[in-house]
Write a structure and sequence with these properties.
alpha/beta; Four Helix Bundle (Hemerythrin (Met), subunit A); TIM Barrel; globular; 332 residues; FMN binding; single chain; RNA-binding; 8-stranded parallel barrel
Length: 332
């Protein structure tokens, strides 16, 4: 059984395989999710490009975007063959591109269709099928509608729901605005857990600290960390030690960089990536630390060079260490 206590949210253009490899170095236990991949991309596109991942990423789940039950079932089978531990159906993304494909948050208006998708996927594979949604969309934002949505899909066999504690406005707000403007309503998700105690309920939205996580775990079964896990990734090491293993020896940020270098070198040698494809995920590693600005600036300036290699990371580390030495000298 997957440990769902803490997970990192699927974030489009962010939680790709490079980011997940990096995050796994910080926490052996958190559940990682892919960025959303559409059924069409898997069925008709470069499957390896979208689904390949490093074995060290385990446990890792695939988030699918789609609304055709049979296509979703086909993709669930493919995901299982690739080794994913879970398939998650996206019923929360509010972007225009997603709506035009008739999937994402707009599916909250059609719970029977979502239930059909879930049931068909569950018939196809024996790995968990989960759903990630909002608390409502547009005018369909009553608690009664949310309960009907949850109950309908649970009857189709889904026992785990990840709920972003905001509604989504499908018209008038951009995806970015939909992550910030609709107010967080944690109490709605807490009530869902109270009313559906037999279901696993994971809360998502605005969680940034150990204290935030502790508070939510008093009310629900798990938490999903979004942007904070990307912008301040070392938080995962703190979460690992606090929630999973009190004896966990948190790696230093410098040690994480050294562990990334062999991976980066292999990726560059294979021709599958340029340095900036990977280092963009590392920009927040020194967040809140002395030298963080120098780290970000050095990587931002030098990694985009098409011929840049892993030596850029060592030079960026040297820039951080120089700042730290200077600060120490001034303190003396």
């Amino acid at each position: 059984m997957l440990n769902r206590l803490i997970a990192v949210a699927p974030m489009l253009d962010w939680t790709d395989r490079h980011d997940r490899y990096f995050l796994r170095l910080l926490s052996p236990s958190v559940l990682l999710y892919s960025e959303m991949v559409t059924t069409g991309a898997i069925i008709h596109g470069d499957r390896d490009r979208f689904l390949r991942f490093h074995p060290s990423e385990h446990p890792v789940a695939l988030q699918l975007g789609g609304s055709d039950p049979q296509a979703l079932a086909d993709c669930a089978r493919i995901a299982k063959d690739y080794g994913y531990a879970e398939v998650n159906l996206n019923v929360g993304c509010p972007s225009d591109r997603v709506q035009s494909g008739q999937f994402g948050a707009c599916l909250m208006a059609t719970p029977a269709l979502v239930a059909d998708c879930v049931a068909t996927m569950k018939q196809a594979v024996n790995i968990p099928i989960t759903v990630k949604s909002r608390i409502g969309i547009d005018e369909l934002d009553s608690y009664e509608h949310l309960c009907h949505f949850i109950q309908t899909i649970a009857q189709a066999g889904c026992d785990t729901f990840i709920i972003h504690a905001r509604k989504a406005w499908l018209q008038g707000l951009s995806p970015k605005e939909n992550r910030e403007i609709p107010p967080l309503c944690y109490d709605v998700v807490h009530q869902i857990k109270t009313d559906f105690p037999h279901l696993t309920i994971i809360i998502n939205g605005g969680l940034k600290t150990i204290a935030d996580v502790e508070q939510q775990l008093l009310k629900v079964d798990g938490v999903m960390i979004g942007r904070e896990a990307y912008q301040n990734p070392y938080l995962l090491a703190d979460l690992e030690q606090h929630f999973f293993n009190p004896n966990y020896q948190k790696p230093t940020r410098q040690a994480i960089v050294e562990q990334m270098i062999p991976y980066i070198t292999a990726e560059l040698d294979s021709g599958r990536a340029y340095l900036a494809n990977i280092t963009r995920h590392l920009l927040g590693l020194f967040q809140g630390e002395c030298g963080a600005r120098h780290w970000r600036r050095y990587l931002s300036e030098h990694a985009p060079n098409r011929h840049a290699d892993a030596q850029v990371l060592r030079q960026a580390l040297a820039a951080v260490e120089k700042v730290n030495r200077s600060t120490l000298d001034q303190g003396l």
